[in-house]
Write a structure and sequence with these properties.
There is one protein chain. It is built from four helices and two strands. It starts with 10 loop residues before the first strand and ends in a 9-residue tail after the last helix. It comes from Trametes cubensis. This is Copia protein.
């Protein structure tokens, strides 16, 4: 979008895995991560170019759980509000 004069802020990516956040920010290749294909390391370039910003979110406060887990009413309502989703009653 910069070609048309519109600058975007870095896209925030939240994760609850400290290991994945460390690997995305740290260019060092360790023996345990050598099996990961190089194309999956593109996130490192995006971080360097300030296109993406990664940060840690505690597992109990991760709104993505709304899509991946069977949540109780309290957490469901909390995460629904955080994602800007509203309840629509057609009655």
């Amino acid at each position: 979008m910069s070609e048309i004069g519109y600058e975007l802020a870095p896209i925030p990516i939240a994760g609850d895995s400290q290991g994945s956040l460390f690997m995305s920010s740290n260019p060092v290749t360790e023996s345990r991560s050598k099996h990961i294909d190089i194309r999956y390391h593109a996130i490192r370039e995006y971080i360097e170019n300030k296109q993406v910003e990664v940060f840690f979110v505690d597992g109990s406060d991760n709104p993505a759980d709304l899509f991946t887990k069977n949540l109780g009413h309290v957490k469901f309502t909390k995460f629904r509000g955080q994602l800007g989703l509203e309840f629509y009653d057609s009655a």
